[in-house]
Amino acid sequence: MARILLIEDSPTETAVMVQLLERNGHQVATSGSAEDGITACKRDQPDLVLMDVILPGMNGFQATRALSRDSETSHIPIVIVSTKGLETDRVWGMRQGAKDYITKPPRESELIARINALIGH
User: Fold this and answer.
1) d(CA 50, CA 20)
2) Which residue pairs, CB below 8 angstroms and at least 24 apart, start in 13-17?
3) Which residues make beta-bridge pairs with 27?
4) Nearest 5°: CA angle at 9, between 52 and 95?
5) What is the pLDDT of residues 10-66, one digit of tens each?
6) What are the Cα distances from residue 51, in Å, to 7, 26, 32?
7) Could you write out the three-class secondary structure of 50-114?
8) Measured distance between the N- and C-terminal CA atoms of the chain, rounded to whole angstroms
9) In angstroms, rounded to a whole number, what is the distance separating the alpha carbons of residues 70 and 14?
10) Is-contact 38 72, C-beta < 8 A?
11) Contact at 8 Å (CB) between 79 and 48?
12) CB of 29 within 8 A of CB of 44?
């Protein structure tokens, strides 16, 4: 079981993702904004972060860059989960420090496989 921080502003997407992750044995904390997510990540030190891109205030690319360049959080893998499905978005997300990039809606088996690969299960 991994401790996963989900940074997502849509209550519907949050509910669906939490249910999917918990069904697969993961413990999930949520945050509705990038700024709150960064604070929670530093405080709670989750095993993995799932990051939306389109967020109020700071966007997910900026938050990914901030977390991946901070010595307190740089060891935590970030997976961007976004509706932005262009190759340029994926490349940009990876350049900001994400370890993976998945377009919404994710297939459950694919998402869980990628999470398990990153957390060493």
Assistant:
1) 13
2) 13/52, 13/104, 16/105, 17/50, 17/81
3) 3
4) 20
5) 999 999 999 999 999 999 999 999 999 999 999 999 999 999 999 999 999 999 999
6) 5, 16, 10
7) EECCCCCCCCHHHHHHHHHCCCCCCCCCEEEEECCCCHHHHHHHHHCCCCEEEECCCCHHHHHHH
8) 9
9) 26
10) no
11) yes
12) yes
pTM of the model: 0.97
pLDDT of residue 120: 85
- Residue 121 pLDDT exceeds 90: no
Residue with tokens 């360049």: 69
Q: What is the Cα–Cα distance from 117 to 2, expressed in whole angstroms?
A: 12
Distance between CA atoms of 43 and 87, rounded to whole angstroms? 33
Q: Quote the tokens at residue 104.
A: 């919404």
The answer to whether the CB of 67 falls within 8 A of the CB of 78 is yes
> What are 89's two structure tokens?
């978005």
